[in-house]
Amino acid sequence: MSLPAAPLLSAAALFERLTLLRLWRAGVRGRWLTAARTPLHALVAPAPPLPPGAPRRPPLVLVHGIGSSAASYGPLIALAAPAFQGVVAPSAPAHGMSPHHPCAEDPEALFAVWRDVLDALSAAEPVALLGTSLGGAVALRYALERPARVRALVLCSPAGPRMTPAQIEEVRARFSMRRLRDGERFLRILFDRPPPLAPLVGLAARAALRGAPVQALLAGLSPSVGLSRRELGALRVPALLFWGGRERVLPAGLLDIYREALPPALVTIVEPPHFGHSPQLEHPRELLAAALSWLDALPDALPDPLPPPSPPPPAPPQETA
Q1: In this structure, is residue 271 part of a structural domain?
Q2: What is the domain extent for residue 236?
Q3: CB 26: neighbour CB atoms within 10 A?
């Protein structure tokens, strides 16, 4: 396939490229995938040799949130690579180095792209899915639709349940980027500890969150959008859900819905008091240690490898620097 021109001038694309360069010595490479005829850039860590006696864990796929990219998992990819049978972190259309596509502004079309790429990545065997924020909603919905393809779910401050009008307005207010310093304000609610150079980073965050894909998805929210309690109760995949004591982006009521609706026999909810909305960036070691401990305690037998999906697999990935 002919490669799309990476949007090098966007802050998100630059952040992803710099993350790739930083992880290069750890064996992480950039690859182009195709999902629903849409090119996606991904950060990929190959499966390491399995030492004798070591637990065989599934491949790990990381699903990012709104306005973010695969680069948001940079620290976690480096730590998780030796522990899984490969790690893949795609960037959604119009995020990171993935080029813009109209599907990025339509929730159902965007999920169709995620579904297609996750189908391809889980073709050989079920995967572990880790999703944050909107990525948690994507991972959860995919597990509901394709439970045989998901070995386990790890969800960090996941969006997903249907919200009330008041909750929707609360979310929109969080993501409002009308004023110049709204990006910095958002960083201070996104993180437990704001990053260095927060005013400068805030300008880049504001540019990303003011973009058409993010604003279109926010404008499309309504009380009928999202997963119902009945749908959440139908989950058949084991899940570990993190909701930190410093979560300030999503309405606290969503956690109550998860507690009430998700099947308790399959779902473990933990509330680290110091976790904010992005523990994969602030506390990657602690997040990974907890996920591995939980995953290794699941039943030993993995499901049998799945046959290839009926559509042809995507074109061979091509490496990027």
Answers
A1: yes
A2: 11-174+226-294
A3: 12
- Side chain identity, residue 5: A
CATH number (domain holding residue 73): 3.40.50.1820
> How many structural domains comprise the chain?
1
Q: CA-CA distance, 301 to 140, in Å (whole number)?
A: 22
**Is 62:73 a contact under the CB 8 Å cutoff?**
yes
Please report how the helices 107-121 and 134-145 are oriented relative to each other, as an axis angle in degrees rounded to 10.
Answer: 60
Q: How confident is the model at residue 197 (pLDDT cuts 50, 70, 90)?
A: confident
pLDDT tens, 213-269?
Answer: 899 999 999 999 999 999 999 999 999 999 999 999 999 999 999 999 999 999 999
Q: Is 117 part of a structural domain of the chain?
A: yes
Residue 182 lies in a domain: no
3-state helix, strand, coil in the chain (%, to 5): 40, 15, 45
Supply angle C-alpha 85, 90, 94, rounded to 5. Answer: 180
Among 142, 135, 123, 122, which residue's Cα sits nearest to residue 95? Answer: 135
Supply the DSSP string of 33-59, one letter for each residue: EEETTEEEEEEEEPPPP--TT---PPP
3-class DSSP state for residue 265?
coil
> How does pLDDT run across 28-77, given as a tens digit for each residue?
999 999 988 889 999 999 998 888 887 889 999 999 999 999 999 999 99
Residue 316 located in a structural domain: no
Q: Which helix (H) or strand (E) holds 153?
A: strand 150-156
Reported as type and span, the H/E element at residue 211 is none
What is the structure's pLDDT at 1?
42
